[in-house]
């Protein structure tokens, strides 16, 4: 059974209309986009999605940034989707991201780093069901 992970193309990227460029890197890496929609998060949704970071000093700014424009939420599928997409995204801080990764290519800053990807199988399942119903995911 193939694995699935949740991806978000963040507001800095949708603003620059580079969803297609990012999707190209995702597909070239062997990740299949099996669900996708463009949405605008409410503050409540953004706070809930990032609740694991609620006590961090950057939380308020992160929430404001994530609701500053539309995002594209996606489900990506591959045999090792979670770890593969983490390596395709690159490090959280784009200054530390390896060349060729999405964040090295496109991120504006540590906060506005263009993409989100789940960090474990367990969180992938939680995050996918946060945005998608089973029938919206077509493998
Ligand atoms: P990742 O997205 O790589 O899993 P984290 O889960 O640690 O990274 O952080 C979630 C998001 O919060 C990051 O992608 C980034 O947008 C933002 N962020 C993380 N650390 C900082 C920081 N020190 N200052 C500002 N924003 C941050
Ligand atoms: Mg994370």
Helix residue percentage: 25-40%
Strand percentage, roughly?
15-25%
Give the terminus-to-terminus CA distance: 11 Å
What coarse outline follows from CA principal-axis ratios?
Answer: globular
- Please outline the major beta sheet: 4 strands, antiparallel
Write down the Rg. 14 Å
What topology, given as strand order, has the largest sheet? Answer: 2-3-1-4
Bound compounds, each kind once, are: adenosine-5'-diphosphate, magnesium ion
Briefly note the structural class of the backbone.
Answer: alpha+beta
Q: Give the SSE string.
A: EHHEHHEHHEH
Question: What does the model show?
Answer:
- The chain is 40% helix and 19% strand.
- With 139 residues, the protein is an alpha+beta fold.
- Strands 2-3-1-4 form a four-stranded antiparallel beta sheet.
- It is globular, with a radius of gyration of 14 Å.
- It starts with a strand and ends in an 8-residue tail after the last helix.
- The mean pLDDT is 98.
- The chain binds adenosine-5'-diphosphate and magnesium ion.
SSE blueprint:
Blueprint: E1 3-9, H1 11-15, H2 19-28, E2 32-39, H3 43-49, H4 59-66, E3 71-78, H5 81-89, H6 102-106, E4 115-117, H7 121-131
Antiparallel strand pairs: 1-3, 1-4, 2-3
The chain binds adenosine-5'-diphosphate and magnesium ion.
Q: Quick summary of this structure?
A:
The protein has helices at residues 11-15, 19-28, 43-49, 59-66, 81-89, 102-106, 121-131, and strands at 3-9, 32-39, 71-78, 115-117. It is α+β, with helices and mostly antiparallel strands.
List keywords for this structure.
139 residues, four-stranded antiparallel beta sheet
């Amino acid at each position: 059974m193939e694995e699935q992970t949740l991806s978000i193309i963040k507001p800095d990227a949708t603003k620059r209309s580079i969803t297609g460029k990012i999707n190209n890197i995702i597909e070239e890496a062997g990740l299949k986009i099996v669900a996708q929609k463009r949405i605008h998060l409410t503050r409540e949704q953004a706070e809930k999605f990032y609740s694991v970071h609620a006590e961090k000093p950057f939380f308020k700014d992160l929430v404001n940034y994530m609701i500053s424009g539309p995002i594209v939420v996606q489900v990506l599928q591959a045999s090792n989707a979670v770890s593969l997409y983490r390596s395709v995204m690159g490090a959280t801080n784009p200054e530390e991201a390896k060349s060729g990764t999405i964040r090295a290519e496109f991120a504006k800053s540590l906060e506005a780093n263009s993409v989100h990807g789940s960090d474990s199988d367990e969180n992938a399942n939680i995050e996918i069901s946060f945005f998608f119903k089973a029938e919206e995911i077509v493998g």
